[in-house]
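lol ok so funny story. i was supposed to be doing the assay writeup but got distracted and ended up predicting the structure for this chain instead. priorities right. anyway since i did it might as well share w the group, maybe its usefull for someone
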Amino acid sequence: MAINSINGNLQSLAITYQLNTKSPAKRTDAKSGTSFKDEVQFSATAQTVGNAVKKLRNMSEVRMDKVQFYTNAIENGDYNVPAANIASKLLSSRF
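and the output, tada:
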């Protein structure tokens, strides 16, 4: 799965679970004139997804430890990919 697809889905989820705190909805009981605030209660699953979205938003998209590892390996000449692996990936992505 492409990273862009995952990020797009996370954005959709995040927007869905955001609360509008600027002007909360209010309703008034016609008989008594008492005003009430509308409330939303999310299920435990929805809360778990919301928490995961918050954590993912705070994570970096680039894992610098991996970048540094491969940068060092390439610079030191320790990074070697067998030609068969390269050919296999080229063929599988092309056909």
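DSSP finds four helices and two strands in the chain. The helical segments are 3-16, 44-58, 64-76, 83-94.
back to the writeup now i swear
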